[in-house]
């Protein structure tokens, strides 16, 4: 198979971001004609121009390396394992965030939403989820043998997750994420649950909570997602910290009571 050249790859990213040639050319500081020549292969871009265009299109670092290789240049950004000594400070920072967040659940996920770090509260929340569904967040949440069986508002929560996953697929074009989306949409009851969501005429909540049934008691949680601000490593660029917070007073008491129980 013929390897893709940098021009068509850049054009695909520009179209995915819904940017015109004029808009991108003005943003990066090149002429529209030169950008057109680059996209059609009539002009060979420098490594600096490839990176400038990638930055203007908000291309992930992993794909920046792909663009550089397609243009005939060496990759610019390393992709170290999280356990690599060079990432010690970043890894320690992530662990501090998770530990400080306890007794509320918190996880660190990679680009396909596999859990790479978790605090104790998150591990307790996932107790009973089959190992076959771990470590992926979407599998754990949407499979009927996972948290879906305990989720009281599955239509609402599944709709939120599928929207989030679909947006990631659209933004990245990642085939692994696209395959994951097809997989979880095929789980029994997922599409049915989403189409059974509440009427659009009902009041829209400020946040979409996750409502779990814990032995007859409801635990309601909302989440925040945080990323590194200026990553220059592919692994760090693809990590996200998802922290869960109690959505009401009874859920806060339940989480703090559960933690207290584990200390006695």
What is the strand and helix layout of this fold?
Layout: H1 6-16, H2 21-28, H3 32-40, H4 47-56, H5 61-70, H6 88-101, E1 106-109, E2 115-118, H7 120-125, H8 137-142, H9 154-172, H10 175-185, H11 190-195, E3 210-214, E4 217-226, H12 234-237, E5 240-246, H13 249-263
Number of E-type strands = 5
Report the CATH C-level class of the largest domain. Alpha Beta
Tally of domains: 2
What is the rounded distance between the termini? 63 Å
Q: N-to-C SSE series? A: HHHHHHEEHHHHHEEHEH
Helix content: 40-55%
- How much of the sequence lies in strands comes to 5-15%
Q: Which assembly state applies to the chains in this document? A: single chain
Contiguous uncertain segments of 5+ residues: 260-264
Shape category: elongated
